[in-house]
Structure formats: structure tokens, C-alpha cells
Amino acid sequence: MLEPVVALGRSRAIAAGVDASEYDAITATLRRASEWTTAFRAAGAAHLADARRAESDGNPITQADAYLAAAACCHIATTLPADDRDGHAEAADAMARALAILQPGAQTLTGAAFRGTLTVPQGDPEAPLVVVVPGLDSSRVEFHANTIALQRRGLATLSIDGPGQGELASTTTVRADYHAVVSEALDTALATGLTPRRIGLMALSLGGYYGALSLAREPRLQAGVTVSGPSTMVWDELPALLQAILTIRAGSRDAAAAFAAHVDVRTFAAEIRQPLLAIDGENDVIPGYSDGADLAHLAPHGEHLVIPAGDHLVGNRRWQWLPRAADYLHRKLTRQ
Hints:
The chain is an alpha/beta fold. The protein is built from twelve helices and eight strands. β5, α8 and β6 (about 225) form a beta-alpha-beta unit. α1 runs antiparallel to α2 (about 20-30) and α3 packs antiparallel against α4 (about 60-75). The radius of gyration is 19 Å and the shape is globular.
């Protein structure tokens, strides 16, 4: 089991911010998959020590970079079927410490069903806003690079952890009505005085389903991008690894199966009236997990972009889709 796990996890970890050589060095020490969490947590601890050393030496940029590396390693530590409660908190804390240095204007938002990071271009409270929605075993920490790509185009970002994700993974379970989470996050963001001209979302992996449902149910959303999102899930056909992860995030095997039965965009895709770009990797073939083709076909203004040789989350071809996705949202939200 170890070799395929290491191979499948590599592009995801690198896209999340783990240095490629460090990933190879960490995984080269593993003898079995059960050592994954401990190894990546140890790497995260080493980066935290580097951050403290940089702080004492008066080197804030090195300190921030070390915190980013720690956040990535601590997050990746949580991505195998292990109930790593401390890893989620450590990843979120390290990311917050990095942003306090690099983006001191970023705000941490808290709601009953979400935790979020709101970043707004300086002096532009009306900048279009993009909600970034993570997937099954991911978090807002994982998609820091995505928020940077959006912010560089003058867009505000609201990255969230919802039930069963990131900071909330240890105390909550996944829920199928995720559109309510997005609505609460928007309510909270707008209560800060933010007045975005338009609002969109970028939703990744299982978050692609969450994002599509939110587009159908939340009228304030005006454009969306999904990446490796499922159109349907069939519990009995899912790989054992994915079943195990979903079981942990849902709280039980029965709850996981019931959740999977809800994942079917065919029940609402025709109600999505906003522009929608569904992105998939050509090689992202998961039994029991259909890609975004149905979503793009059924949504009245849907488009389907397939990246040749792309894997799940298309991390191995990120340069081929992330700029296009960010440009798409910028164009739709500024109507250029």
C-alpha cells in the first residue's frame, strides 16, 4: 500500500506547499503507510523550530516561510486515514502566524459551521470576492497558492474550513447541505463591512460538489470554478482508501455511505444559472467517483476543461489550469 500512497500524494503535497525534495526525503524514510502522519508532523515541528530561530534572529521573511512550510507539512500529515486532531490545529496556527507577517490585513472569521481567512486588497472593500472551498480531507491551508493567484488579480478571497474539514475536522463531521456553510461564511464576511461588487467561488475535490450545490442555492454567487469535483459518488464502488477517509470524516461507515448517496449533481445542476468552469485531470479516474462532465453538461452555462495527463486536483499540471481558472473568475466577476 505504501508505494501507491506516496506516488498519489506527491503532486498534492507539492501543490500544498511541501518542497518536492523534502517530500521525497520524508517519504523515503517510511516503511509503512501508518508512519505517514508521524513523519510529516515531525517535519512540521522542524519548520516550527526554524521559524522560532528566525524570529530570534530578526528575520521575519524567513520566519514566515518556515511557518508556511510547517503549515503544509502538518496539513499533509492529516491526509491519510488517521484521526490526527492535533495536526489540523497546528497547520491552521502555523498558517495564521505566516499570514500575520506576510498579509497583516488578513482577518480570521468564525461562525457556527466554518472557520475562515478573509483577505481584501488594501483600500478596496468593493473588490470582487472569491470563496475558496476545500474538499474531503483538505483545508484552507492546502490551497494557499490558489488564494495568492486570485489576490494577484485584485480579487478578495475568503478561504474556509467547513464541517469535517481543517480546523473543524476534529469536532464536526461532513454535511451534505454545504451551501448553508457558504451562506453563513458570506454573511459573516459581509458583516465586516465588505461590499464586494460580485462574488464567486473556487471549489476543489469534494468541495467541487459543495461548490456546485452552493451555486444552485446561494443567489449571491455569480460565477464558479470546480476542480476535480464529483458529479456523483457510489459508495460500494469507492476505493477502500477513500471509504476509510470518508468514514473518519463522517463519523461512521453508515454515515459515510449515507453522505455519498447525497452526492449527485444531476438533482440540481440545471438550476445553476451562473457561469461555471469545471476542471478535471484526464488521468483522474476514481471508481465510484464521476468527474465534472455531467455537471458542466447539465449546468446551462457550464464549460468542461480537461487537462491532459492531469491527476486528482490536477496538482501535477497546476500551471496549465490555475492561471486560467483565476483569469476566468476575474473576467466573470469584473465582466471584462
